[in-house]
Each structure stands twice: as structure tokens, then as C-alpha cells.
Amino acid sequence: MKAWLTSLAFLFLLITPGLQAQVKLAYFSSEAIIKQLPEAQDAQKQLDKLVEQWQSELTRMQDEWKKKFEAYEKRKLIMTDQRRAEAEKELRELDQAIVTFRNQKFGQNGELFQKQSELMKPIQDRIFNALQSVAKDEGYDFIFDKSGDILLMYTNPKYDVTEKVLAKMAVPTTGTSQTK
């Protein structure tokens, strides 16, 4: 809905008489910039390493639960009611520990989300500062990120300022800012 309203507002600006000559628009690709930033690649490697560690721990926990469940299934008919209840309680607690671990690490506000925010904030700030500088230097009124939620059905490459933003950031370009 938000993207639709933003697109509608963008379209309104384009077709409103008298504004066409006054408004200067451009777009860039944050995705292309991030792919070319060494610090973004380093941040991604750190995140991948954390995910690998957490996934390994999660797999270990799930394997432990599976072994205990299989042992329980084999012996449940010969267990006393008390021992069966204890084993079932232990399985529920292990299952809950797995769910809790998964949520703590990979949940909506989990450690992965927090670490990603922590590592990417300086990179996003650097991109934003360079983008603001390009906008002021070039006199743009609006610059859209075509990597985000705004759907652009057509973009004229002459308005793509991705390379200029990279240049402001002193990042060597590969000339491949056309990601979408």
C-alpha cells in the first residue's frame, strides 16, 4: 500500500502541469552501491559467520531433541508413568529451548537483526551523505532508490546517479549500476 501511494504521488508530480519544468528527478541503486563497497562485503561476511555458528548450534540442539525423542519412542511402552511424564517434560523443554534460541537469534528483533543494523548503519549513513551531496551539487529535487519499495516501471539511464554517489564515496566503479 505504501509503495502504491508513493508511486501515485510520484506520478502526480510528473503529470501536474507547471511542475514538470521545475522538478528535477533522479534515481540510484543502493543495492549496486552496497555490492561495490568493501565494508559492506566485510559486514556481510561477519553476518554470514554468525549465522553459520548459530545454525550449527541450532542443528546440534535439534539433533539432541531427535535422539531423545527416538529413545523415548523405543522405551515409552516399558516406562513407568512417572518416567514417561519426565521424558515428555524433558522433550517439551528441549523443544521450547530450540524455539527460544531460534527467536533470540533469527527472530524479528533477534540478534541477527540487531547485528545487521549495527554493521550496516555506518554504511547507510555514508551512502546517504554522498547522496545528499550529489543531490545538492546537481540540483535534484527528488532522488529515488530503485532497489527499495518504490516500483519503477521504466527508468531512463541518463537519470541514474548511482555512479556519481559511488564517486562521492571514492569507491572504484565497475560501471554496472544497472541492477534492475
Would you write up a description of this structure?
The protein is mostly helical and 180 residues long. It has two domains: 86 residues, Protein Binding, DinI Protein, Chain A, CATH 3.30.910; 75 residues. The chain is 67% helix and 4% strand. The longest helix has 38 residues. The chain is rod-shaped and about 80 Å long. The model has no long low-confidence stretch (mean pLDDT 85).
Q: How do the strands and helices of this protein lay out in sequence?
A:
Layout (H helix, E strand, L loop, with lengths): L1 H14 L9 E4 L1 H7 L1 H38 L5 H26 L4 H28 L3 E4 L16 H7 L12
Parallel strand pairs: 1-2
Helix pairs in contact: 3-4, 3-5, 5-6
Descriptive tags:
180 residues; mainly alpha; Protein Binding, DinI Protein, Chain A; two-stranded parallel sheet; rod-shaped
